[in-house]
Amino acid sequence: MAAPKTIFEKIWEAHEVVKRDDGQSLLYVDRHILHDGSFHAFGMLRDSSRTVRQPDQTFGTPDHYASTTERTLSEMTDLEAREKVELLAANANEFGIHHFGLEDIRMGIVHVIGPELGITQPGILLCCGDSHTSTHGAMGCISFGIGASEASHVLATQSIWQRKPKLMRVTVTGQLGFGVTGKDVALALIAQESAACGVGYAIEYAGPCISQLDIEGRLTLSNMTIEAGSRIGLIAPDDKTIKFLEGSEFAPKGRKWELAVEAWKDLPTEEGAEFDKEVILNGSTIAPMITWGTSPQHAIRITEPIPDPEAEPDNEKREAMKRALTYTGLEPGQLMTDVSVDRVFIGSCTNSRIQDLRLAAEVVKGQKVKVWSMISPGSGKIRQQAEAEGLDRIFTDAGFDWRHSGCSMCVGLNGDLLNKGERSASTSNRNFEGRQGPETRTHLVSPAMAAAAAVTGKFTDVRTLMERR
Fold it and tell me: Is it true that domain 291-466 has CATH number 3.40.50.1820?
């Protein structure tokens, strides 16, 4: 009798074309997604006199350099960013790949539109030239980020050489409490296990709290997998996954849909399958989280004081904590609820989906912002849906800047930046030094927590606002 298999092993084995003696495997790639930073890969493709092997399985959209205030090329005043957007459109046209340009309602952040359009599906292998490609694993697939030379190889061959990682299962037990989201689960895990806990592993998320999360929350959790050191984060598909994908543009149709659903139901990890590492996270103890330092592992419950570096026994971690506190201008023992913010950003591939906007709007409704605040929906379709639901009016009436889709203030390649010395409540994924601009301070929170900071002018336990309603 065959040994029980994990979802990862099932997908890996189905895509392994050949395995070399050195342990490297050639894997078939089902979907390849590109953004406006992919010009290097296309340049390498031309240099080798090759073409795109499977254009129907290749998708491109501008997001890193796309302006959130301008929706046509002629409007773009940043000439360097405009060139990158134009290059993607030209490359897509030349090689015949799917392209969702600035004026296409389907345009958006690559890791948002993949699941939204049904490009991402259970059981596939997906690559993209961006580290947060781990996001797509929430749909029950293997997905990971690749570099320019690897992207060129995928374009030319529809395959990629990879070494099989070890396997880790993160089981989130208990039940998530009021106001706790996928973002909080991710930050709680990284705070508990460190930002390097997943290095060398593919992570599968399991347990009752994962089942409890909606698809948007799962996508957020898988997105943050890279911040735990792992390139791959998977969640087995279930009825929520199937419902989310049904009817989407690139999902199978008719009898093919029925066959696909049957196959997807066979993907979950079998009982008794072995993992190289098991991690348990008690979901019942997770509260709304916030980062205080310059790493996602510098995270605490909003009700907790900032930890004292002197209590850290590891010398390297202790010094890193001291440096982080110096950079953020905070003190051990200080409560984050006493810290004011300068700007609020709701967006990025981590937290810009429709459910994220709904949660934020629930907090904002009837309030006024006390600091400059902006929202960048993850795609044109999400922006359209939010406007159909009246969410945009809730935000604009409160004083939010309602933007178009793009990576925006998460990456800062498009003009959306903090000013020097400013502090932000951000729904993005990285709080590294200077991530949102030189000498700026980024604190990671969920959309609801960001909304609470916007209407109070400081970091606030969003539960206290919601309980009053």
Answer: no
Give the CATH number of domain 166-237+269-285; options: 3.10.129.10, 3.40.1060.10, 3.40.190.10, 3.40.50.2300. 3.40.1060.10
pLDDT at 469: 65
As a whole number of angstroms, the distance between CA 140 and CA 143 comes to: 9
Q: What kind of architecture, by CATH, is found in domain 7-164?
A: 2-Layer Sandwich (3.30)
Residue 2 confidence class, pLDDT cut points 50, 70, 90: confident
Q: Within the chain, which residue ranges are assigned CATH 3.40.1060.10?
A: 166-237+269-285
pLDDT tens digit sequence for 239-297 = 999 999 999 999 999 999 999 999 999 999 999 999 999 999 999 999 999 999 999 99
Query: Locate tokens 């089902």: which residue?
Result: 30
Within the chain, all domains assigned CATH 3.30.499.10 are found at 7-164, 291-466
| Joined tokens for residue 278 | 């098991």
Give one word for 233, left, alpha or beta, with left for phi > 0 and alpha for psi -120 to 50. beta
305-353 confidence digits (pLDDT tens): 999 999 999 999 999 999 999 999 999 999 999 999 999 999 999 999 9
pLDDT tens digits, one per residue of 314-327: 999 999 999 999 99
SS (H, E, C) the chain: CCCCCCHHHHHHHHHEEEECCCCEEEEECCEEEECCCCHHHHHHHHHCCCCCCCHHHEEECCCCCCCCCCCCHHHCCCHHHHHHHHHHHHHHHHHCCEECCCCCCCCECHHHHHHHCCCCCCCCEEEECCHHHHHHHHHCCEEEECCHHHHHHHHHHCEEEEECCEEEEEEEECCCCCCCCHHHHHHHHHHHHCCCCCCCEEEEEECHHHHHCCHHHHHHHHHHHHHHCCCEEEECCCHHHHHHHCCCCCCCCCHHHHHHHHHHCCCCCCCCCCCCEEEEEEHHHCCCEEECCCCCCCEEECCCECCCHHHCCCHHHHHHHHHHHHHHCCCCCCEHHHCECCEEEECCCCCCCHHHHHHHHHHHCCCCCCCEEEECCCEHHHHHHHHHCCHHHHHHHHCCEECCCCCHHHCCCCCCCCCCCCEEEECCCCCCCCCCCCCCEEEECCHHHHHHHHHHCECCCHHHHHCCC
